[in-house]
Automatic annotation (TrEMBL):
Residues 292-369 form the ACT domain. Residues 100-280 form the Prephenate dehydratase domain. Catalyzes the Claisen rearrangement of chorismate to prephenate and the decarboxylation/dehydration of prephenate to phenylpyruvate. This is Bifunctional chorismate mutase/prephenate dehydratase. NCBIfam families: CM_P2, PRK11898.1. Pathway: Amino-acid biosynthesis; L-phenylalanine biosynthesis; phenylpyruvate from prephenate: step 1/1; Metabolic intermediate biosynthesis; prephenate biosynthesis; prephenate from chorismate: step 1/1. GO terms for biological process: chorismate metabolic process; L-phenylalanine biosynthetic process. Residues 6-100 form the Chorismate mutase domain. The keyword Isomerase applies. It comes from Marinomonas arctica. The record marks 273 as: Essential for prephenate dehydratase activity. One of its GO terms (cellular component) is cytoplasm. Its EC number is 4.2.1.51, 5.4.99.5. SUPFAM superfamilies: ACT-like (SSF55021), Chorismate mutase II (SSF48600), Periplasmic binding protein-like II (SSF53850).
Length: 373
């Protein structure tokens, strides 16, 4: 007769008890982490005295999230695990000092969605009516950071954002890449078959054109100022019994209490928008960084070639080049360049030194961690 113990089979009550026990341990550890965050705030205040204390460290948070993803063993995916830690970090940081984040509004836009993705939900959201207002809010100190769109994978660059850097002293402190999913939304009391108009921003209507042509060819499309405004109009119309639909994202859907008729209706499933985080301080190296420059080239033959040759000579990977009118001289141009690395890296410093010899002006817009999520 065997003396070995037989394994007790899993039963629903036993599994639930185990989950309750794990939840208790997780909760205890989260609070322990929060107490450590409070201690961090106390140490910073003691060390820096009356000077402005920087509680949020972009490079530190990027390093933490990268380690979370590197050591993750599943079954939760790396991004899902990082999102959980992102919110834990956001809640702990709010204990030190809640941050006010300005973003291109109104509430419910994809820019707000990007702000929440980058900073977590434990922030004070401050919607602004225009991109230059976001810059002014951060420059004045009324907001800790700002979030603005800079490029879309299908629609190209956001020129207003690039132009705002010309006269601004703000630094780029981070980036967010947000996969843009559009949903067809209606008020919960509305029958989708009765919809007479579909409201959205003109870019969103363009990004969903083929889907709309196939499934809603006879419904009038109306361009409005933003997807969030479309969601608000659909919610208001629903309260009066009018059948209006909106194309908007997840945040707008939740904010205005709408129901999804169809999800992910964008024509290109890889449609992605890149957003920049702007702030007042330089960001130390995180180990995986990107640098952005603004360059005014000399008006002479081969000027652009000589700028680009500096990257090849020092082995630095340039990832983006955009051209904008200078506004300082007729037919003059300035260039916006992104490249891999931090401006404190030896090879990157060598490139910038070369560029300063070859260009009329070189402005380092910032070095910042490459988007983690």
């Amino acid at each position: 007769m065997s003396n070995s113990k037989q394994a007790v089979p899993d039963t629903l009550p036993l599994l639930r008890d185990r989950i309750d026990s794990i939840d208790s341990q997780i909760q205890m550890l989260i609070n322990e982490r929060a107490r450590c965050a409070q201690k961090v705030a106390e140490v910073k205040l003691a060390e820096q005295g009356g000077e402005a204390v920087v509680f949020y460290r972009p490079e530190r948070e990027a390093q933490v999230l990268r380690r979370v993803m590197e050591r993750n063993e599943g079954p939760l995916g790396n991004e899902e695990m990082a999102k959980i830690f992102r919110q834990v970090m956001s809640s702990c940081l709010a204990l030190e000092k809640p941050m006010r984040i300005a973003f291109l509004g109104p509430e419910g836009t994809f820019t707000q969605q990007a702000a929440l993705k980058h900073f977590g939900k434990s922030i004070i959201s401050a919607p602004m009516a225009a991109i230059d207002e976001v810059f002014r809010e951060v420059e004045s100190g009324a907001a800790n950071y700002g979030v603005v769109p800079v490029e879309n994978s299908t629609e190209g660059v956001v020129n207003h954002t690039l132009d705002s850097f010309r006269d601004s002293r703000l630094k780029i402190c981070g980036e967010v890449e947000e996969r843009i999913h559009h949903h067809l939304l209606v008020s919960p009391n509305i029958n989708a078959d009765d919809v007479t108009h579909i409201y959205s921003h003109q870019q969103s209507l363009a990004q969903c054109r083929a889907w709309l042509d196939r499934y809603w060819p006879h419904v009038e499309r109306v361009a409005v100022s933003s997807n969030a405004e479309a969601a608000r109009l659909a919610a208001d119309a629903g309260r009066s019994g009018r059948a209006i639909a909106a194309i908007a994202g997840e945040v707008a859907c939740e904010l205005y209490g709408l129901s999804k008729v169809s999800s992910n209706i964008e024509d290109r499933p890889d449609n992605t928008t890149r957003f920049l985080i702007v702030g007042n301080q330089d960001v130390p190296p995180s180990g995986k960084d990107k640098t952005s420059l603004l360059i005014s080239a000399k008006n002479e033959p081969g000027a652009l070639y000589r700028l680009l040759e500096a990257f090849e000579r020092h082995g630095v990977d340039m990832t983006r080049l955009e051209t904008r009118p200078s506004l300082m001289s007729r037919w003059g141009y300035i260039f916006y360049i992104d490249f891999v690395g931090h401006y404190l890296d030896d090879d990157c410093r060598a490139v910038i030194d070369d560029l300063r010899e070859r260009a009329s002006e070189v402005k380092v817009l910032g070095s910042y961690p490459v988007a983690v999520l």
